Amino acid sequence: MSRDARWKALLELLVERGRLDVEEAAAELSVSAATIRRDFDQLAEQQMLVRTRGGAVVHGVSYELPLRYKTARHASEKERIAKAVAALVAPGEAVGLTGGTTTTEVARALAVRGDLATGSPALTVVTNALNIANELAVRPQFKIVVTGGVARPQSYELIGPLADGVLGQITLDVAVLGVVAFDVAQGAAANDEAEAAINRLLCERAGRVIVAADSSKLGRRAFARICAAEAVDTLVTDTAAAPETVRRFTEAGIEVVTV
After folding, report:
1. Disulfide-capable partner of 201 in 71, 142, 167, 220 (CB 3.0 to 4.6 Å)?
2. Are 122 and 94 in contact, with CB atoms under 8 Å apart?
3. 204: exposed, middle or buried (Cβ count in 10 Å: 0-12, 13-18, 19+)
4. What residues pair up with 177 in beta bridges, in sequence order?
5. How many other CB atoms are there within 10 angstroms of residue 248's CB atom?
6. At a CB cut-off of 8 Å and minimum separation 6, what does 138 contact?
């Protein structure tokens, strides 16, 4: 197992359990205790966890995995969701994409659509996610607009008031939101209030709003609200979503697409 794979596995175990002992982690990953100690020390140096005597605990109250360690979670569901979301975008539209693993997959699905291979532009993409802009910038038929702001290392998203100047001057056909949680009563939410503020601006500038979220995000709450459920036009999720949960969103006037 490579170091990156070990680190991803360790961080996911920490998020799940809150605390890990060295011996427990070594047994889980089939590596030596010395390797786990070294991994814990290096992750602690990067402030991804807090070292304890004999183990580690999650860093902070509202712990969040950095984006590069979340890509394998619900991967097949996210790919299906992304393809379905991309199909809802028409050629020539202006699309806002927030950061996140699911919206990154949406960007990739848009990039390989045959009917978006040409155009002037075939699509205008506005994003505050550096990784999405980087992937799409090589597509000459896409016009890429990046908001200003300060880069947040956990998600590669630009945040802060510098983005307001850009977002206040544009109009979007559709905004695609990647969320940490989406609930009928509490709305769409993120872990970080600065990310939520930028995402909220994207929603306000859009003619329609699509939430792209796998079923594990539904019915959950998170710290920072992006928008009310009523502001969302379409939810694209996977078929593991509970029928009762889907019914509640439908009754709230949201079109639900399951894939």
Report:
1. 167
2. no
3. middle
4. 211
5. 18
6. none
Please give the Cα distance from 49 to 198 (Å, whole number).
27
CB atoms within 10 A of CB 1: 11
| Dist CA 59 CA 249 (whole Å) | 34
- The residues pairing with 159 across neighbouring beta strands, listed in sequence order, are 150
Dihedral angle, C-alpha 146, 150, 151, 153, nearest 10 °: -160
Task: Quote the percentage of the chain above a pLDDT of 70.
Answer: 93
Burial of 80 (0-12, 13-18, 19+ CB in 10 A): buried
Q: pLDDT tens across 75-89, in order?
A: 789 999 999 999 999
Exposure string for 125-162, b = 16+ CB within 10 A, e = fewer: bbbbbbbbbeebeebeebbbbbbebeebebbbbbbbee
Mean pLDDT for 231-246 is 97
For residues 191 and 222, the answer to whether their CB atoms sit within 8 Å is yes
Specify whether the CB–CB gap between 145 and 129 falls below 8 A: no
Identity of the residue numbered 255: E
Q: What's the token pair of residue 172?
A: 């979007």
With tokens 């056909």, the residue in question is 173
Distance CA(85)–CA(230), nearest Å, equals 19
Lowest pLDDT segment from 35-39, 127-131, 163-167, 239-243: 163-167
Output the six-digit token pair for 163.
């983005």
CB atoms within 10 A of CB 245: 18
**CB of 226 within 8 A of CB of 179?**
yes
- Cα 39 to Cα 3, 31, 50, 52, 108: the distances in Å are 8, 11, 12, 13, 32
